[in-house]
Write a structure and sequence with these properties.
The chain has 469 residues and is of the alpha/beta class. The protein has 19 helices and 11 strands. An 11-stranded mixed beta sheet has the order 1-3-2-4-6-5-10-11-9-7-8, with helices on both faces. A hairpin with a 5-residue loop joins β10 and β11. α3 packs antiparallel against α4. The longest helix is centred in the first third of the chain and has 19 residues. The model has no long low-confidence stretch (mean pLDDT 97).
Length: 469
Amino acid sequence: MSLAALCFAPLTEVSDRIRRRELSPVELVRALLARIEAIDGRLHAFLRVLSEPALDEARTAEAEIARGGWRGPLHGVPLGIKDLLDTRGVPTTCASRVLRDHVPDRDATVVRRLREAGAVILGKLHMTEFALSGYHPDLPVPVNPWDPSRFPGLSSSGSGVSLAAGLCFGALGTDTGGSIRFPAAACGVVGLKPTYGRVSRAGCFPLGDSLDHVGPMARRVADVAVLLEAMAGPDPDDPTTLDEPAPLCVAALEAGLHGVRVGVDLDYVSKETDPAVVEALQAALGVLERAGATLVEVHVPPVDELVADWSVICAPEALVAHARFYPERAADYGPTYRTFLEYAARLSARDYAAASSRRRDWSGRLRQVFRRADVLACPSAPFLPLPVSVLAPHAPFDPTGARALLRFTGPFDFSGSPTLSVPSGFSAEGLPHSLQLVGPHLGEAMLCRVGHAYQQATAWHERRPPLAA
């Protein structure tokens, strides 16, 4: 297998070869470090590459496996960590000048669990400042490997770029309004946003506490299934975690689609959506139906007013999270996040309470969808990856812009529903399409079952961006 092919191999395949001692974790890390050195200077997926610590972890994993101490499918596998998740002894900056000197003394729970599973932490991945929509001017903007003129997916952009470019085998992202799904869609990879509370957020710097989700990203559904099983479960350090064991996603992968009901609301998916995106969704639905699924008509509660409420709920929660820094250090923030906090300070308690009431009502009505369907299908985004010029990386925060972008993502952060985004084709310009599957609470295993069946019937996830190392 060539170096490039190795770097793009499925996580599960790499894991199996490591387990059988056909592949050295040390050589695997060296291959990825060489690729990062060759191409990340123009992609900016990583904020910090942990070369020597990663090699040390790989040597430890290799020695443990040689002694018969294989820990499981992540043992010796190199992963990337979004830079708002604490890593012990390594700066965790949220891509901001505000936290440039922050060095945690302990790992975030999800990072600790991945280390306990034997994973190798390759580095800290780039992101928008504090996981909103703009980048801090001190830092370069990540580049979409499919087209440098198109946006790479906002908050977890470093995670999406690194996977699309073959720089790691799995990555952690966070999602408050779409920040796992947007980079998954823009970069042509897989992103899983778990049920709210399924994965601990201890050690994760919040954007909106009641909206934040931590989840895995990879190039294949089978890979995110492995990652989620290692990450999920109750955590005494995060009282919002559910008292539920990790979902059995891997065991569900080969169950097939016979008897599975896929819900579709044609009005919801087509309103204000790029016709090319609607056409790609219809093609994906055809694949699912031919594979044995039953398509059923459902009604998604209206989202227009709800999407407008996203900023009204998220911004005050962000203001609470930044009480230590704002307004005293307002000048250290980039223009997008600073104006977001300024917007938050103008909102009233009445604004927040009214939006929260509408959120609860909508979430309750969404549950009716899952009485008729096992999963809901819709696009991950209403349009193909936008030109970078449209989403200016240092523009002031604009709540009206957020409304247009969040139609297929924000509502499911409000409801805390699990979602899975899967590559589902390419446009005439060579830009990736993305199918989003939404499930009822604790429905991650069904999402992985459907998403894996879709990938078994298609080859979109096997395409590679036109990068030369």
